[in-house]
Sequence to fold (120 residues):
Amino acid sequence: MNPVECKPLGETICNRLIAEILKLGLSPENVSSLPNYDEAGFTTEKDTYSGMDSLVGVWKNPNGYRIGEIKVHGDGSFYAEYDVALQHPTDARWFVESVVAWGKGELIRSEARLLAALGS
Fold:
């Protein structure tokens, strides 16, 4: 399993994460960065559950801090998370921690991870 083999799926997952960000009402100008498959640093690790290799991509900000991760497992399942860390643009009760996507093959689920805003 390598980044080139997983690129079509990885790009689809990134597009789904971006769609979740946009669905919240945030624009690309509001967030510090958007998930881009080609900008992740990739390694391979053994999945402790299946024993198969998993491709792991990590996104970092310019200061070197981790801001997201994408994992594609040998069985075709995946999980991705990308930090947003912004106040919800239309509902002050919520803080947008991140967006996540998970699934297998062409089945993709996604959602925003919200936290109660301070003072709510």
Summary: The beta strands are 41-46, 53-60, 66-73, 77-87, 94-104, 107-116.
